[in-house]
Specification:
This protein is an alpha/beta fold. It has ten helices and six strands. The strands form two sheets. It has a four-stranded mixed β-sheet.
């Protein structure tokens, strides 16, 4: 799945270098081995402090701008990503995403931000949710960072194209089996057409509630605050 995902991301015209940032746990070694096979940069760091892992992965290449894409989105659309990057570059934002004010399908998520903002977050963030999810510190401080939202002209936010659960994997597998053989470069429009023709595919995973991982981190934030009061 990750190899298919990286194949799609490689079609981006705006991304200059892909870096896979995975954990240093032994069970993530196959990811590093895949990157070696594909001749892609791979950085390994903390499993839980993803902000630290992300910052250290980016710092090696001294970028001005960082694009964050997560490995659970194997239907990512390079055209959507490039449009978001262009939106970021043409406006005076510090951070742009399409997943704060959601109008794209869950699973087409991207975030674009200045490396300096990432470095500030890395230095100052202390909450569990801000360390595990990379960008909440930036989004939590609109008085310090100019935040922009890239939106779709049509609300597609009810679609679930991410892979967090086995049912999600079944859905994505069905999409690839239906489209990839005839057109390995299939687009968001192709997926939407498929779902119009086969709406039963949406029954595979659209019942899953999104965002449990972040809600878990917010509960950990409450425990952190309680500990600070002791």
């Amino acid at each position: 799945m990750l190899e298919m995902h990286l194949e799609r991301l490689a079609r981006s015209a705006m991304i200059e270098k892909l870096i896979v940032a995975t954990s240093d746990r032994p069970d993530d070694t196959p990811i590093a081995e895949l990157c070696a096979k594909l001749d892609l940069a791979c950085f390994r760091g903390s499993l839980s402090d993803v902000l630290d892992r992300y910052y250290r992965a980016a710092r090696r290449f001294n970028p001005e701008t960082v694009v964050r894409l997560t490995g659970d989105c194997p239907l990512a659309d390079p055209a959507v990503i490039d449009a978001g990057i262009n939106y970021f570059l043409k406006n005076n934002f510090d951070y742009v995403s399409n997943c704060v004010e959601r109008s794209f399908p869950i699973g087409l998520d991207f975030e674009v931000f200045r490396f300096g903002c990432l470095e500030t977050a890395w230095r100052e963030a202390v909450l569990p949710s801000e360390r595990e999810h990379v960008t909440p510190f930036i989004k939590n401080h609109p008085e310090r960072f100019a935040v922009g939202h890239y939106t779709s002209p049509v609300d597609l936010s009810h679609h679930r194209w991410t892979v967090d659960e086995p049912d999600d994997f079944a859905f994505v597998t069905a999409v690839y089996e239906a489209l990839y053989g005839d057109n390995s470069r299939f687009t968001t429009e192709d997926i939407l057409t498929l779902l119009e023709e086969k709406p039963e595919l949406m029954q595979l995973n659209y019942h899953i509630e999104h965002g449990e991982g972040y809600r878990k981190s917010l509960r950990e934030d409450q425990a952190f605050f309680a500990a600070q009061k002791l």
